[in-house]
Design a protein that fits this description.
The structure is a single chain. This protein is 27% helix and 29% strand. The chain is an alpha/beta fold and 175 residues long. The strands form two sheets. A seven-stranded mixed beta sheet has the order 1-9-8-7-6-2-3. A two-stranded antiparallel sheet has the order 4-5. The longest helix has 15 residues. The chain starts with a strand and ends with a helix. The model has no long low-confidence stretch (mean pLDDT 92).
């Protein structure tokens, strides 16, 4: 296990951002969601995010074709993305939800190539919960709120430090 002092979190996120786009939980008013990290974004690891990191895999808008009209009409497919998509601070229930998406979009008769392309680039760093909120559904879905099952890296709150443990080859590569 590796550990980093909590006051070094911005430097750690800056290093992760060299690998790709890092999405972190950020609160605004009474709502929190995962947003792309920037130096001016205040990361909120104290509260469960209101919205899951689902939008990383399913953005509200996405270019899947470009049409060009003229003498000859053409359809172009943009090249697939190449940078990593790093979700930092996802809760175990969010990771479980992504695993459900994997079941639907990757293991059935039809594989969704748009989902697969993003999922292959996705690295999940999961922060286990120390207590379950009344609104949590972990206990109803058989999810251990303290575990990082399905995550690439487990993140632990160790008082003045954050501990990191790689769970997959993707996680080992990042750490």
């Amino acid at each position: 296990m590796k550990a980093v002092s909590k006051d070094k979190l911005p430097a750690l996120l800056e290093e992760l951002a060299k690998e790709g786009t890092v999405y972190v939980p950020c609160s605004s008013g009474d709502m929190s969601k995962f947003v792309p990290w920037a130096k001016d974004v205040e990361v909120d690891l104290e509260h469960n995010p209101t919205l899951s990191p689902k939008e990383v895999l399913f953005p509200q808008t996405e270019v899947i074709y470009n049409y060009k009209f003229g003498d000859e009409n053409t359809v172009e497919v943009p090249p697939p993305g190449s940078e990593k998509l790093i979700v930092f601070g996802a809760r175990p229930c969010d990771v479980q939800a992504i695993m459900c998406f994997d079941e639907v979009f990757l293991t059935r008769t039809y594989v969704d190539n748009y989902y697969k392309e993003k999922r292959d680039r996705l690295v999940i760093i999961s922060l286990g919960c120390t207590t379950a909120e009344d609104t949590c559904f972990c206990k109803y879905m058989g999810v251990n709120p303290a575990e990082a099952e399905g995550a690439d890296i487990a993140l632990f709150d160790l008082d003045g430090e954050y501990g990191f443990e790689a769970k997959t080859d993707k996680g080992k590569e990042i750490l």
